[in-house]
Amino acid sequence: MAQGGGAKQVKLERESELRIEVGNDAPLKLRLLNGTAEIFGTELPPEIWLTFPPRLKFAVFTWYGATIEMDGSTETDYTADETPNISYVNVHAVLEERRNRAKASPPDDSNSSQPQGPRVIVVGPTDSGKSTLSKMLLSWAAKQGWKPTFVDLDIGQGAITIPGCIAATPIEMPIDPVEGIPLEIPLVYFYGHTTPSNNVDLYKVLVKELAQVIERQFSANAESRAAGMVINTMGWIEGQGYELLLHAIDTFNANVVLVLGQEKLCSMLRDVLKNKPGVDVVKLQRSGGVVSRNAKFRQKSRSHRIREYFYGLANDLSPHSNIANFSDLSVFRIGGGPQAPRSALPIGAEPAADPTRLVPVNINRDLLQTVLAVSFAKDPDQIISR
Ligand code: ATP
């Protein structure tokens, strides 16, 4: 129910949270009056008014009690005293122990047995709170001085950069609840679609590339290796989506699999991973505060993310256009269109199309309103997604 404007105070008891959906048209101002509180793992500064943009959905949680003041209109706001945050912070404590152990153990001569921090992968259906849990674990770790690597494999709603990409970045400070992930040194691979089913093999190639680069960074940097990584995944968990989860677990050598809100997925993963030594599969409860978003809402938030990429969160960037001749540009699509599924081929035959083959694209009206990536490749034979 929409709540009217005007300032109001909300007193939160210990271990409870204020869940808010900001109204569609105007931002909401909020501040911490007393006590301590956090938004998805990042502490609120005392007394300072913060401004949250329209449509943002978030929760202000307190471990020991707090009073919050807010000013502006909300779509919904209510207090909840049942949250899974204690189980989430317990996971954080276990990860913390592993980071300390990795930091304390002397490096081995052979690369493969260098001390490793936790490699956490968060999986679950759509709207189970995967991105939110990833943010919490990263922010709690950063608060304790670690610089864990955030890997976002969700090309649909990407939290690091524009949708259609997979990306990774070290998190050096608790994540700002309004501004999100800082974009200083992200490692980004452009996939170009919002669902992996357009070219599953290309998606896998990019995931593998990203994992290899992080692996190299980890082997050269004991500090990031000990801090480990948190990998956010897509909500596609059936059929091919499930295969892609297994592929990601394997490629990143994940050793902690956090399954949000789905018994079936958890038991399937436990079953296939039971022969992999050192991989823990942990089931966690979905928070009742996670807001379900329909296809239309997702489409809208993708458009907002794209706009934000070019214009900035507060319209503070000024992109400019460049004019070039069509003849000076070469546009390629990666992968030669949809492949025949294996099941449609004779037994033993492999699909012929190479998922990373470049297909020249005619520049015409079909390209209007599409986002392309600029390649650093010197010639088209090099893979051009990065
Ligand atoms: P996807 O299906 O896109 O992968 P997801 O599983 O990652 O989704 P989130 O993005 O974490 O889900 O959560 C969905 C929405 O619910 C987000 O807008 C998030 O800010 C909001 N949300 C999560 N937890 C809470 C909470 N406790 N109170 C209020 N809003 C919340």
From TrEMBL:
InterPro entries found in the cross-reference section: Clp1, Clp1/Grc3, Clp1_C, Clp1_C_sf, Clp1_N, Clp1_N_sf, CLP1_P, P-loop_NTPase
Chain ranges of the Clp1 N-terminal domain: 11-102
Residues that coordinate or bind ATP: 17, 57, 127-132
Region (Disordered): 99-127
Record bears the keyword Kinase: no
GO BP: any one term: tRNA splicing, via endonucleolytic cleavage and ligation
Main location: nucleus
Family matches, as PANTHER family: CLEAVAGE/POLYADENYLATION FACTOR IA SUBUNIT CLP1P, POLYRIBONUCLEOTIDE 5'-HYDROXYL-KINASE CLP1
Protein name: Protein CLP1 homolog
Organism: Prunus avium (Cherry)
